[in-house]
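Predict the 3D structure for this chain.
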Amino acid sequence: MTQLARRAAWTGGFLLALLTSTTAAAQPATVSFDRYHAPREVVAALDALVKASPATTARHTIATSPGGHEVLVLEIGPEVGRPARRLPAVLVLANMEGTLPVATEAALRLATLLASKPEATREMTYFIVPNGNPDAAARYFARPLVADPRNGTRVNDDLDDQTDEDGPEDLNGDGVITAMRVKDPSGEWLPVEADPRLMRKADPAKGEKGLFFLHTEGVDNDGDGATNEDGPGGVDIGVTFPHLFRPFTATGGRWPGSEAETYGLLRFAFAHPEIAMTFLFGATNTCIAPPEGGRKGSVDFTEIKVPEDMAKRVGLDPARTYTMQEILDFVRPIAPPGFEITESVVASFLGLGAVVNPLEDDVKLYKELSERYKELLKAVKLDGKRLDPAQARDGSPELWSYYHMGVPTFSMDLWTPPESADESKEKTGITADTLEAMSSETFVALGEAKVAAFLKEVGAPPEIKAADLIAGVKGGQMTPKQMAGMLRAMPKPKGGEGGDPRQKALLAWSDKELGGKGFVPWTPFKHPTLGEVEIGGAVPYADTTPPAAMLATLLDGQVPWVLTLAEKLARLKIARTEVAAKGGGVHELAVWVENTGSLPFPTAMGKRNQQPAPAVVILETAGAALLSGKARTPIKELEGRKATKLTWLVRADRPGTVTVRLESANAWGDAAEVKVGGAR
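Done. Predicted structure below.
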């Protein structure tokens, strides 16, 4: 066993022992997880960690927010201060939304865990951003309490002659910004019958008429007839990343990376090609709910129509559609020598637009890891009924990391209120997962009544009829798998007779565990311009931020999963070498390169986008002549636990040594020396 292999095995064994232990790791005295930490306290905590371990920790300021907060990266690993990096890194982003204090605490917990266990970073670097949106995060520690994901950029939301002049006010003096409901026969909202504290939108298709308008608590400061339409704050950092960025929105910024916080992070990430994985603590949770398809892009890659002028040039039929694979199979044989035809090349050439759904091989991997994560939650007794996590938003860092950087990207939301009792009752039992596994015959056999009940459960539009779906499946126009993708992409049903499931869960949690402090009862108030109103509703953060007393249990049970995933990273090594004499001083050199990690190199999306860069096997043949093969041979892909064989012919009239170096920016690497030469 080589020294590198021994070191890898020792480190892997240590991490396994660390992560299977149920004992909480020792915490440095600088951070205690019995409360939430304001942005400036987070900076102080990072400084304390760096001061305690200056050889293996460093802090990097990548931006200053419009509100004057530093956006910091904490580096933990053995290559601090080195300009050249040879070890892979994990990028950890927390609270990019700015409204999730528990995410920042998770990042701090990870930092203290790594700092107290240097063996975990012996051969790996962690870059941790504990507060990606500090302007918004600071609002949790201010009063009145308001949840707002926008940073401090001044934006004239209502395009008048003033900026940030009409924000919310705490009219009833309770220290929180909630809602106002105003009776109006032209309103859109109704109280929920089962619990009038909740509101739902009236459904005109059912003959319902609204009774209320809803507003954020406050007054019309600028006298333009609108309430709270231009408050402090400007851009939601969580939607300012390049993939599927939406221009011309109220809170999305002027362009991808327009904000200092986003631009600083983009620059940092692309300056560190050693980043091999991204993990996010925030609103989404791909560890529990793997990313799925269902987004509608501008082009369906299974039905590509080639423009007529291009089709004629390459001999395709402009009147029909092709799959991406059919186009690749057709074009590759006629491509110029040395010119590689890939999906990204074809997509760019035809102007097909961005990929919007994860690739099947990656989804399969996410699902396998999700099952293991759920086993972990069960072991640490955190597997209770919970709300479904949010889906990644367009322009989110989750999408950017997976689709642009091409690295495995995971996320964790850490906590939601428990699912309310009536929501957790079994209904039809049809879910996206069960649909995906169904054959067409099984779906048809469900019958019209059960399919209709399922459509009602998921909040399908009334024009979608059970009979039409069944007929479509019978006729082959639709499959259950396609329906599963559409179901995953649909927003969770809101309104309806039972109300929003998240609001119902919040009320149940507030009543049972918070003594009613998570919801302000509707109370009459004389408004200066709206007249008689009622002020009340959900307390900001109550449905996303667990009580501080729960922090230690939640963090200690879930944060170590990041280390488990990092342990699975692709690790490339030279597994074996062989030399066979062919006569006349000519030798065949064979090298087996193995991926000893369980994750592929790279992801399927990374392979499609050719990002990150491939590994390279370099032959240094001093005193020998290379007869066949290349001195630099790229390895573009290698599945987990698999090996690939490379061969060369070299001529060496005298005995000598060929050095084989395996180099990779983010999958370790290796080297070996092979004896060749002499006329055998």
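Residues 156-232+497-538 form one domain.
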